[in-house]
Amino acid sequence: MKGNPGPSKRRRALRKGAIGRMASYVQLVLVVIAAVIVVMVCYTVWRREVPALGIAKPVPHATGTRAITMLPPTPTPSVTPRKLAINPAVKGKHVGILAGHSGPQNDPGAVCPDGLREVDINLAVAERVAALLGEQGCTVDLLEEFDERLSGYRADAFLSIHSDSCDIPEASGFKVARVLHSAIPEIEDRLVECLYQEYERATGLPRHDFSITPNMHEYHAFMEIDPQTPGAIIELGFMLSDRDILVNEPDRLATGIVAGLLCFLEQQVNLD
Q: What is the tally of structural domains in the chain?
């Protein structure tokens, strides 16, 4: 018959059991930590590949199969267009306003994936510009893109109104240009600068002049109008990022353009 194990043997057994339980606990903790790390890595990879829900989504491009990322339009603070004072100095001045892509040629210009058309923006602004210039006592011709009247057209100022496309989600702003090889460069530079100054002031949009293209400098209407007619082309803004102001506040855009034209016409009167 064996006797009861001594105290030392019991302590060793208890210690061995405690160590075993501790090892099992540590092993479980390590498994949990490893699982958490795997989940975090998978989530990070998923966030890199999939845009956050409600912030961006792929939308088919209007003219091809390429997809673009559509971001929400940049909101523009709503401001009531300032009232333009009547300037007697410009009464009787002759101005030509061309609504880009308007006319029977069936070319709406840029078209966004949701159907927003450049020509509709251009025409809405051009009509308001013509009306405001008429209130100033100016003689105004509202011209179409390939208007027969462009050939040898003579006026105190000529402006073609266009809008930029939906293809560049991060782009916002406007730009103004004149013909590259001008017969009257100093005069046309004053027209361009007046439009930049007053349109920026009225709309709050930034200048995006670093994106001016050769197509703007070599715009077909510049080659058709009389070389002594000061002319310019303006891109009102981008139809994605600047959509809010382009669609909802054409009066602000028109006020900025007219203020720029009045600035130029008054300068010309003072120089004559």
A: 1
